[in-house]
Amino acid sequence: MATIASALSRPTSLNGVWSWITTVDHKRIGILYGVTAFIFFLIGGLEAMLMRLQLARPEQSLVGPDEFNQLFTMHGTTMIFLAIMPLSAAFFNYLVPLMIGARDVAFPRLNAFSYWVFLAGGIMLNLSWLGGAPNSGWFGYAPLTSSAFSVGNGVDWWVLSLQVLGIASLASAFNFIVTILNMRAPGMSLFRMPVFIWMTLITAFLLIFAFPVITVALVELMFDRNFGTNFFVASAGGDPILWQHLFWIFGHPEVYILILPAMGIVSEILPTFSRKPLFGYPFIVFSGIVIGFMGWAVWSHHMFTVGLGPIANAAFTITTMAIAVPTGVKIFNWIGTMWGGSIQLKTPMLFAIGFLFLFIIGGLSGVMHSISPSDAQQQDTYFVVAHLHYVLFGGSIMGILGGIYYWFPKFSGRLMSEGLGKAHFWATFIGMNAAFFPMHFLGMDGMPRRIFTYESGMGWDLWNFVSSVGAIFLGISMLLFVYNAVRSWRKGELAGDDPWDARTLEWSMPSPPPIHNFDEIPIVRGRDAWWHQKRRRAVTAPVAGGSGESDGAHESIHLPSPSYMPLLAAIGISLAAYGVVLSYYLTAFGMFMTVASLYGWYMEPITASSEDEKH
Amino acid sequence: MVSRLFRLRVLALATLVSFAAFIGAACTPDHPQSTFDSMGPVAQRQEDLFVLIFIAALIVFLIVGGFLLFTVLKFRNRAGTPRQTHGNTRLEVILTIIPAIVLIIVAVPTISALFYIADPPSGEAVMDINVTGKQWFWNFEYPDAGVTTSNELHIPVGENIRATLRSDDVIHSFWIPKLAGKVDVIPTRANDMWFKADEVGVYWGQCAEFCGIAHAHMRFQVVVETQADFDAWVAKQAEPAAEPSSELAQRGHDLVTARGCIGCHTIDGIPGAVGTIGPNLTHVGSRTRIASGILERTPENVAAWLRDPQEAKPGNDMPNLNLSEDDISALVAYLDGLK
After folding, report:
1. Are B95 and A332 in contact (CB < 8 Å)?
2. Using one digit for the tens of pLDDT, what is the confidence trace for B243-252?
3. Which domain holds residue B304?
């Protein structure tokens, strides 16, 4: 086994393609996550635009029913697992060490491994288009997913790629929990952490508790489809409702996994552009924790029409209504942060305010859904589609876009164009409302979800047309963003270290930050450490960190070396998954490759220098 | 200052216009599946509750959203470094308690409605119907009358109906927007729901749970009629299929067996015609629509369906039998006579 480690000479290059493939630097991994996830976001958006074209007018046949079912399955799965989650992970990766005053995450190679496994899962899911993509919905309700009702391999690719993606999420979640709990700069107690770090920590805990549940459910489904078990096969006595419970015990915390990072981002943007500290920091942190806990007690509100009985529905109605309280607390505190401030309406701030406005609408329609007796009319209609897009686009995506505008100068050293940014904001805001607000009307008018066509005369023609125009407009508005990002990356105005006069530690270092992040690990004496350091120099005094060097001596800072092993292990895992459909020999080979790479990973020293090899 | 006032006015106007549109769009009772045109007590209770929570949500939105906009406009570009306030515990506690109280108030009518829609009022007469959802149509069985039909549910006006919902294949959801919110139709389970129609009329229903390729085409109609009309309908349905009345129809009658239609369709009175894969055709000529509600039952539509069943409803289980035009006219004539 040691031959594997020694057969591959340790990569050392810091430039060029191979340096990106073997990197273990959290900043580069963050950029890889961001760019990859954004490409998946555009793919998922194209899928949505095809659906909206099909539904723009009644009885069209641009796509057939099976293609439409594939499109909405892939759109949902892509946006949740390949766009919003990894876009959030991009922020975690890039920012967590910078914001807590660390030189990297706790396990840099595990971090690279997470990225490569995520990429492998995303490629696997999208390759399924070649032979027929999954067509049972992102929620995969049994028994429609069983081999009797879903022939072909679409559902198999869906199951396997979600398992692969789950490995990436779990590895990444453990990494960030350890990083945040153990690697904060001296003086940064838990209650001095930026709120973004808090939301990352809560999200990571939700991930490690939620993913095992979906993993079990997917394993059972895989066994049903491949080995003739009957966990969910109704005709053989299996229980299709078991799937729904397992899926939503994962699925509802997943909703908070999708929104909490955006809430963290907004909690950083609002104070900076109001030039005030976050209002009610402990209330925002505790409400985040409460949401994290209560997120486990509301899953059956996805199942109000399943027939669980009035007692169960009453219980889940009340828990669901209750979760509006901590959410409301957050909104009041965000507005309180702006109150009395000096509000600078730069692009990131516009997106943060847009987030607030749209999230209020999505939150209120969520409370309307919690009323289970009347929800029996809205369940599985376009009213739900409107609600979830107000929360996930108006919430998560608006927050994430705001975050990109906010930290782009830190990532790239250059400012994004404000003019293009503002145009993008208004185009997105108008397009998003035009696309999703009419869906409320469609739902109230009795239009079910997931229908590939509808008859004229149902009263749905007008709002479907408006929604489609809005969706196309929204899609095109993203081109403004892509153009702005690419152009600014190459020749945007130089940003300097701290273009926004911001408050947290990442703005205390050069843009982009050096590979070792901090020359000297800062000592933190309060929240908003950098803001106070700028104004009262005595509050935080940089003193010697980890390796005790003085200025100019950071060549000796101890950083982990690049490695092939995370990539090889990720390839092994994905080959093992492909093998479940293609050939079990491939599975065996993939497993062998994974174990061998992990062994090589274990054997190779963290830092490869000539001195280390002598030891 | 003027521009700020102007901006506020524009925003207020825009908000009002969008809510006028919201309410205007909501009140569209002429639409076949509108949830704002309740025709029975269950749907009415759901609609009333929805309107109540909508008004509460609208008030909250106007207050919070308005306050958000006001804050942004008031503190925009304010000069100087603001005071670095960190919070106000009393305010926070008050703002936590107010929403909690609002939610507790809303919870009372919610829980009451929840139990109201769960079971028909005790002590009142109830008529039982067995509903079976299938990929991709509906069977309706009247256990007391011993009658089964497909895709067109007949019920007497003013009578409590208890529907027991079952599925043979995947999960469907039984939904008649003007009469009652949906309840899922699940294999391994028998779910109950009840409803009552206050007025004679024809109401649309549609499967609301994604159930596969023809999900969009799994619709049905509910015909609400007077007790006398309903009794006459039941009596008619209990009869075996009508004998063919012309030579052409007779040929169609023979084709039903010769071409194997009876393998999938039940036609009472034809030996061996007990298939359950497709809808029951014993009285198909008495229905107004075919193909689970998606086509009007005109001779042209029936002929087009027989010519290629996959054209109008892609993915359904009926194969193209490559019938000749002569055979198609014979079958159309026969099926039309099955009143």
Report:
1. yes
2. 999 999 999 9
3. 247-336
